[in-house]
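Take our chain:
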Amino acid sequence: MKENVILNKSFDFALEIIRIYKEMKNQNEFVLSKQLHKERY
């Protein structure tokens, strides 16, 4: 089965956004961290 590059890059990007969000939240950067963490429905 062929590797899905787009899926892997998207997943890695999502994990990086979560890491950045947590780091910013710990540094009290609430406005930017909330913008990064917005959920879409």
